[in-house]
Write a structure and sequence with these properties.
Blueprint lengths: L1 H17 L9 H5 L7 E6 L4 E6 L12 H13 L8 E3 L22 E3 H9 L4 H12 L2 H14 L22 H11 L3 H7 L3 E4 L8 E4 L18 E9 L3 E10 L2 E10 L1 E3 L4 E3 H16 E7 L6 E6 L6 E6 L3 E6 L7 E7 L4 E2 L7 E9 L2 E10 L7 H13 L2 H23 L19 H17 L30
Parallel strand pairs: 13-17
Antiparallel strand pairs: 1-2, 1-9, 3-4, 5-6, 7-8, 8-9, 10-11, 12-15, 13-14, 14-19, 16-18, 18-19
Length: 497
């Protein structure tokens, strides 16, 4: 029994030591962050398009006046396309005021009132005037219905797959809905326009007097940048953008902030207002501020790989100098990661175009790719390029090309033809030689190296056999040896003294 207790205690001690070493399946910073008190929420780093927090971000929600971000986007698109200018003056029509209720956000623009596009945008985005949305819609598309069609078309272009608009201002309709992620997409696009950035970051603005109104003083409904309506929510890094509320949508806010060169967009939908005896908590602001602080404090830019990092050594054939070339990334891969980033969980996967390359190699030549993941999440890919030049060895190159040609199908065919020709020539020459078992040539034919000499000798013998009487045995020619005592014809006889 005592032995079993000892073993159990030993096991528990070992487990306590090993547990901290087991990697977490998700970012610790996000695990520790309490859930947002709203029906849906999203936090995104804009530069890296990285989601830092997601709470029902793809579920359908009512956007209320956040709809006006899309309305402003279409107006700014039209200005960029030259369809109108920021200074263009529009006249409020009766149809533009027809669906505006007395209890909704308004700047009391009257039928026949003339106001510029830019001032209407301030009314739209700072004080959330619903009639300004309709006036702008008619100014851009000619009618509200045509403008709504353009809103839905633009949403499709931006990839807002969970969105459908039914009006330009956001007053409740059952078929007027979106998602927190889609709101991020349209806000990110609108923030690319400097005029939009300027307006949504403005806490207070004065609209000049018109033909039917004195000047109007507008104060932002966004308590992160203005305390005119609600005090105690200011967040200094905040740069906008738009509030929204209907009973069906709840309290909504899409906000942006900049800090340390980074830009974040937060979306909070369906928040409540909590009242106490001494205070109130407007959670669309407190939760948005908490999200933005979380993004700046608990995440930072991490460099995962950079140019100059040795990723691989690739063997080089036919090199004049070194036998390999260093492969390195051609760009930096960085991303937003938790401040608790641990490089031990960083994984790089190298894919080479070829296991071996051939000289010459030029600096910057693409040799393959490298992919980067952190805790099994992909964060990018870069080309692997040669870090330096590698010169080719001319003798090696010539020998390689010669050998390559000889071992190619054409080279092998030429070699085969040459061998065949040599064999044919040898066999043909051998066939012209006499056979060893044939008839012997006649003994009266003397072989001479010169063909004409052989014929002359044979003819001379034939003449001799015809002029002399033959008592000699057949086949035995008479000796042609001269008698030294007999004088030669035409020469005088000589004696030896």
């Amino acid at each position: 029994m005592k032995k079993n207790i000892t073993q159990a205690l030993s096991f528990l001690c070992i487990l306590c030591v090993l547990l901290p070493l087991i990697p977490s399946a998700c970012f610790a910073a996000e695990d520790e962050f309490p859930a947002v008190k709203a029906t849906a929420a999203l936090l995104v780093d804009v530069q890296y398009d990285t989601v830092l927090y997601d709470q029902n971000a793809h579920e359908k929600r009512y956007p209320a006046s956040i709809t006006k971000v899309m309305t402003a986007l279409l107006v700014l698109d039209a200005i960029e396309q030259g369809k109108l200018e920021a200074s263009t003056v529009l006249t409020a029509s009766a149809s533009s005021l027809a669906d505006i209720t007395n209890d909704s956000s308004t700047q009391n623009i009257q039928v026949g009132e003339k106001i510029s596009v830019e001032e209407l945008l301030y009314c739209l985005l700072i004080s959330s005037a619903n009639e300004s949305a309709n006036i702008l819609a008619e100014g851009v598309s000619g009618s509200i219905s045509a403008f709504v069609d353009a809103m839905n078309a633009r949403a499709e272009e931006l990839g807002m797959t969970g969105t459908h608009f039914a009006n330009p201002h956001g007053l409740h309709r059952d078929n007027h809905y979106t998602t927190a992620y889609d709101i991020y997409l349209m806000t990110r696009q609108a923030m690319k326009y400097p005029l939009f950035q300027k307006i949504v970051a403005t806490p207070r603005h004065t609209v000049p007097a018109t033909n039917l109104s004195e000047e109007r003083v507008l104060s932002s409904t966004n308590a992160l940048i203005s305390s005119w309506r609600y005090a105690g929510y200011i967040y200094t890094p905040a740069t906008g953008v738009k509030t929204g509320y209907t009973p069906e949508a709840g309290q909504c806010l899409v906000s942006s902030a900049q800090n340390g060169g980074r830009t974040l967009i937060a979306v909070v939908l369906g928040a409540d207002v909590i009242y106490t005896d001494t205070s109130e908590d407007r959670r669309q602001f407190t939760e948005s501020r908490r999200l933005l602080r979380h993004g700046f404090n608990d995440f930072k830019v991490q460099t995962l790989i950079a140019p100059g990092t040795l990723m691989n050594e690739v063997p080089v054939r036919l090199s004049k100098t070194v036998p390999y070339v260093v492969a390195q990334p051609n760009k930096t891969i960085e991303s937003i990661l938790p401040s608790s980033y641990d490089p031990d969980y960083l994984k790089t996967t190298v894919t080479l175009n070829a296991e071996t390359i051939e000289a010459p190699v030029k600096q910057g030549q693409v040799l393959g790719t490298v992919s980067v993941t952190y805790m099994d999440i992909p964060y990018g890919q870069a080309d692997l390029v040669a870090a330096n030049d590698v010169q080719v060895s001319v003798p090696k190159l010539l020998w390689d090309r010669a050998w390559g040609f000889l071992t190619s199908p054409v080279g092998l065919l030429i070699i085969a033809l040459l061998i065949g020709y040599l064999l044919y020539s040898h066999l043909k020459g051998a066939s012209r030689k006499p056979r060893s078992g044939g008839r012997k040539p006649p003994s009266n034919i003397i072989s001479h190296p010169n063909r004409h000499e052989k014929q002359r000798v044979t003819a001379g013998k034939a003449g001799m056999s015809n002029t002399r009487s033959g008592n000699l045995p057949p086949g035995k020619p008479k000796s042609t040896k001269k008698d030294p005592n007999k004088p030669s014809a035409g020469r005088p006889s000589q004696r030896h003294h």
